[in-house]
Design a protein that fits this description.
The chain is an alpha+beta fold. It has a single domain, classed as Alpha-D-Glucose-1,6-Bisphosphate, Chain A, domain 4 (2-Layer Sandwich). It is about 25% helix and about 45% strand. Strands 1-7-6-5-4-3-2 form a 7-stranded antiparallel sheet. A hairpin with a 4-residue loop joins strand 6 and strand 7. The N and C termini lie far apart (about 50 Å).
Length: about 160
Amino acid sequence: MAASAGLLKRKLEGEVEIREGAADAFHDLFANRPHHLPNVKDDFIHACHLHEGAFGTPGSTIEWTYTVDGKKKTAKQIVEVVDEQNKVMKFKSIDGDLTKDYNYFAATFQVLPLTTGTCKVIWTLEYEKKEPGFPEPTAEMDALIKMAKEIDDHHHGVKN
């Protein structure tokens, strides 16, 4: 059984380019003002509530309400990493819909500068499926990538 459990551990990565000027805004929204994310566009993230700690602080507990594939979901997460200098954050799910399908689920993003006046946002989802037939979190990844572009457009005053 231990060998098959290792086969259920996965990593999914996605990246998207955003304008350089949105890099700080992207990181700041997630780190210090995640409750403002629904103001960008509320078709993905509807709410973010602080349960324990303070926004932007490792060890804090937050709960998201969001929609993926037309289904309203929740995710309660612990903020594990907040690296302002390298624009990295990591969230580990401890309750909610993600914990129904996955024994472990963590989402990490990093914003990296490029030489072209743009940046790239890299999302990494690490997870362990409870059963082999459970879905890959591709819809979640697609929504996170789309949201990065929406934050970029919102920061630059582009209406979608």
